[in-house]
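Q: What residues go here?
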């Protein structure tokens, strides 16, 4: 289905696994996709994968171009989006897949141990980057009357009760709140602002790596921790990267207008998520 045919999409922090899946889906649904990150070689490889996948899927697929952009540098963000608009005359879709490593938070220290800098690290990186890419994108969408879609990324931690993640959970909750505010500000210009909130994606290196390290730290089998993750699955199944990408592509389509301003859980249903 080519429900994004002729759309111009930009994916920031595209070297992450979720952002890569979203970029693939955008292209498969017909969009012209720009993938960006600080690591140019990595996004060039992603663009090549997308082109190869679009080609193998047959005619009519989208395309991909790579560029080096720091999603925490407003000047770089602005300069790149200005070029995208100059080349295409519009900007239809923006997605930011920015993430934070546990090492940037000093691991997972309890709130009584974490420093203020460790608490603020995910807030500044995750929420700060989403703020910058969203507001610059909105500026160009308004200028070009693109009536586009801005999709932010949060996590189930925003509405979960997970110990030792105070900064990360606060950052995710802030992103969801920011989504609602931005949708209200820019809705009059026809701009949709939505947030996708995936559950734990077992196939990703982030989740599998954390499970492996936690199992080693606590001396329990990996299978036991995986079972704890899955214990709250309503359908006894877990979301996949492809499903996250397809959800983003649907939200960016014309039919996705029904979900404007909301944080969309992509978790197949969880008993422990508000």
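A:
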């Amino acid at each position: 289905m080519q429900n994004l045919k002729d759309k111009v999409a930009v994916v920031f922090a595209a070297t992450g696994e979720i952002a890569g899946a979203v970029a693939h889906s955008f292209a498969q649904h017909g969009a012209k996709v720009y993938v960006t990150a600080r690591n140019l070689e990595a996004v060039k490889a992603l663009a090549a994968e997308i082109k190869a996948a679009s080609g193998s899927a047959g005619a009519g697929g989208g395309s991909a171009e790579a560029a080096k952009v720091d999603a925490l540098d407003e000047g770089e963000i602005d300069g790149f989006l200005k070029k995208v608009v100059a080349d295409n005359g519009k900007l239809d879709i923006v997605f930011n897949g920015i993430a934070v490593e546990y090492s940037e938070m000093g691991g997972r220290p309890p709130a009584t141990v974490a420093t203020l800098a460790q608490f603020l690290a995910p807030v500044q990186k995750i929420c700060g980057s989403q703020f910058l890419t969203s507001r610059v994108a909105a500026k160009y969408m308004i200028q070009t009357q693109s009536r586009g879609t801005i999709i932010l990324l949060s996590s189930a931690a925003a509405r979960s009760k997970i110990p030792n993640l105070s900064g990360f959970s606060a950052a995710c909750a802030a992103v969801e709140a920011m989504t609602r505010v931005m949708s209200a500000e820019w809705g009059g210009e026809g701009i949709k602002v939505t947030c996708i909130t995936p559950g734990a994606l077992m196939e990703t290196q982030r989740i599998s790596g954390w499970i492996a390290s936690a199992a080693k730290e606590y001396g329990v089998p990996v299978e036991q921790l995986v079972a704890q993750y899955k214990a709250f699955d309503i359908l006894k199944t877990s979301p996949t990267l492809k499903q996250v990408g397809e959800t983003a592509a649907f939200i960016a389509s014309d039919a996705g207008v029904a979900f404007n301003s909301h944080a969309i859980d992509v978790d197949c249903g969880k008993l422990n998520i508000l």
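A: Context that may help when evaluating the design: The beta strands are 8-12, 32-37, 63-68, 93-96, 149-153, 192-198, 263-266. The CA atoms of residues 28 and 57 lie 8 Å apart.
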